Structures are given as structure tokens and as C-alpha cells.
Amino acid sequence: MQINALHHVNLITADQPRLIDFYRQVLGLTVGDRPPFEVNGTWLYLNEIPIIHLVETAVPYRNEEPQVNHYALTGQGLAEFIDRLRQLDIPYNVFVAPQVNIRQVEMFDPDGNKFEVLFDSAEEADLSPYKWPH
């Protein structure tokens, strides 16, 4: 058996429009086809792959202890991504992972879900955090 990649992340939210707007602006995702499930939701696509599935709930979904710490995506264009986050006034932190060639840009979506976008360590950018901690 071989695991190849993360397929999708499912997020429960009481405010789909806010999360759709956030992921469109920050990651450039687009709304796409979704099967007609019994619950309301939205699939957000990266190219042809629905990587974030939103499921609507009537009340905000909050646990005292999160069951998922974070999810991670890979990217290219570190400097442009950091510029976008600053323009959108989104707090973030950059963590340089020791002994591996990645830079992790950490942030939270409007519902408090933590995620990272990973970039190759060869990419140059201002790595100072912006309005962090969250």
C-alpha cells in the first residue's frame, strides 16, 4: 500500500459564505460541483481537486480540545503568498522546520481552523510573523 497525497479536509461551519470568501482570497480556491448530500455544504477546488469540503451546521461547532491540530498544503511563491496575507490583514507565523527543506506558513481561518502552506526553503521572503500569535 502507498499513500500519495492528502485528498481533502472536511470543515464544519455555521458561516459558509465567510469561509468560502476566506479560502478564495487566501488560497485562490474555487467553488465546484458537490454531490447532493442531505446536508448543505460546499466543495472548494484547487484546480480539479476538491481539497476543502465545508459542511453547514446551524450553530458554531466548537470543541474545548480540537480533534485535528491542523492541515497542510504545499505551495510555490512564498513572497507573493506572504504579501497576500498582509494585504488581507491575516495574522500568520513562519516556522522554518529543522533538517528539512520547508518553510511552514501557519495561520487560522475565520472559524479557528489552523492550517499551513509549505514552501521550499530556497524561496526568499520576509519571514517575520504578522500580528502573531493568533
Short description:
The protein is of the alpha/beta class and 134 residues long. The protein is built from two helices and eight strands; from the N terminus they run E-H-E-E-E-E-H-E-E-E. A hairpin with a 2-residue loop joins strand 3 and strand 4 (49-56).
Which CATH architecture of the largest domain?
Answer: Roll
Strand order of the largest sheet: 1-4-3-2
Note poorly predicted spans: none
Distance between the termini: 38 Å
Average pLDDT number: 88
Quick one: biggest sheet? 4 strands, mixed
Give the % helix.
Answer: 10-25%
- The shape is globular
Quickly count the domains.
2
CATH homologous superfamily identity of the largest domain:
2,3-Dihydroxybiphenyl 1,2-Dioxygenase, domain 1
According to CATH, the fold-level topology of the largest domain is 2,3-Dihydroxybiphenyl 1,2-Dioxygenase, domain 1
H and E string: EHEEEEHEEE
Write the layout of secondary structure elements.
Layout: E1 9-13, H1 16-27, E2 30-32, E3 41-46, E4 49-56, E5 71-74, H2 78-87, E6 93-96, E7 102-108, E8 114-120
Description:
The chain has 134 residues and is of the alpha/beta class. It folds into two domains: 1-60, 2,3-Dihydroxybiphenyl 1,2-Dioxygenase, domain 1 (Roll), CATH 3.10.180.10; 69-134, 2,3-Dihydroxybiphenyl 1,2-Dioxygenase, domain 1, CATH 3.10.180. The chain is 16% helix and 33% strand. The protein contains two helices and eight strands, in the order βαββββαβββ. The protein has helices at residues 16-27, 78-87, and strands spanning 9-13, 30-32, 41-46, 49-56, 71-74, 93-96, 102-108, 114-120. Strands 1-4-3-2 form a four-stranded mixed sheet, with helices on one face. A four-stranded mixed sheet has the order 5-8-7-6, with no helix packed on it. β3 (41-46) and β4 (49-56) form a beta hairpin. The longest helix is centred in the N-terminal third of the chain and has 12 residues, at 16-27. The protein is globular and about 45 Å long. The chain starts with 8 loop residues before the first strand and ends in a 14-residue tail after the last strand. 16% of the residues are buried.
